[in-house]
Specification:
mainly alpha; Ferritin; 12 helices; about 65% helix
Length: about 290
């Protein structure tokens, strides 16, 4: 029986295989299936899978599995289009699909790379990867309904660049990816949903509403594991966060902030005040 449990699942190998899959639809579907497979294991088998020997080894993954299209360019080279035109809405959906595709990779990499974390950490990030896979498929289907596809427009590599920059430490990853990059979605989603609804594009608005709801949970997961690691290392989370936001990391901060959603996602008032403070400090330093 014990031997059967040990062989039940090599979660790190399975995660690596999905992470390296270059086909976006197949990757999204595999991330959903991987989470369901994990949930089908009993707690003992999950524990053995996390703590046991894996065929997979932690290594540098400079580029995850991804298709040749879209062409990746610098963010400032991306054309800006208003939502009032069909082309503008396609561009928005394409950019969101790119974000969600990269979010699958980021969630899987958080599991693949940082292996000294509890079983619940694995469960959380598999769920995030599954959610992001569902989001991507919804956006992929919406693009098809509008006569387009993922890869039709250029995109940028900012999200995976942050994965490279934070690959050395789970504390830094949790601080800067869910708590900064993903939390940005909590601020911008409601106005976009309102605008799309006003334009009569209720199908896209409904997808964004689903993503918004799930992202609150994803940010909460990042907040919770950030605090877990800080407590485990006897660190003051607020001071760690302040130190990490000094300099270029504050360039990602953009007010106004969705206070209600951020509180729901696990930020506290002290952290919200710190975010505003560090944004102002960065703007002042770079306006000279």
């Amino acid at each position: 029986m014990e031997e059967d449990l040990v062989c039940a699942m090599d979660i790190f190998l399975d995660t690596e295989q999905v992470l390296l899959d270059a086909d976006p639809v197949r990757k999204a579907q595999a991330s959903i299936a991987l989470y369901q497979q994990w949930l089908a294991l009993d707690p003992q088998a999950q524990s053995i899978s996390v703590s046991g020997e894996s065929v997979s080894r932690v290594r540098v993954i400079d580029v995850p599995g991804r298709p040749a299209q879209p062409v990746l360019v610098e963010p400032h080279r991306l054309a800006r289009r208003g939502l009032g035109s069909p082309a503008g809405r396609v561009a928005l959906i394409h950019s969101l699909a790119h974000i969600e595709f990269n979010a699958i990779n980021l969630a899987l990499d958080a599991l693949f790379r940082f292996r000294d974390m509890p079983v619940n950490y694995v469960t959380d990030w598999l769920r995030v990867a599954s959610d992001e896979g569902e989001h991507f498929l919804l956006l992929h289907q919406r693009l098809a309904a509008l006569g387009s596809y993922y890869g039709a427009l250029p995109a940028h590599d900012g999200l995976w660049e942050m994965a490279r920059r934070t690959s050395h430490d789970v504390l830094v990853r949790m601080a800067l990816v869910p708590r900064i990059l993903e939390a940005r979605g909590l601020d911008v989603a409601p106005p976009m949903i309102d605008r799309l609804t006003q334009l009569g594009d209720t199908d896209t608005a409904a997808i964004l509403q689903r993503i918004y709801r799930d992202e609150i949970r994803h940010v909460e997961i990042g907040n919770r594991w950030f605090r877990h690691v800080c407590a485990d290392r006897s660190l003051d989370g607020t001071e760690v966060f302040r130190d990490l936001l000094r300099g270029e990391n504050s360039a990602y901060l953009r007010s106004p902030y969705n206070r209600e959603a951020r509180l729901q996602a696990g930020f506290n008032e002290q952290e919200l005040a710190l975010i505003k403070e560090m944004e102002l400090e960065y703007r002042a330093q770079n306006s000279r």
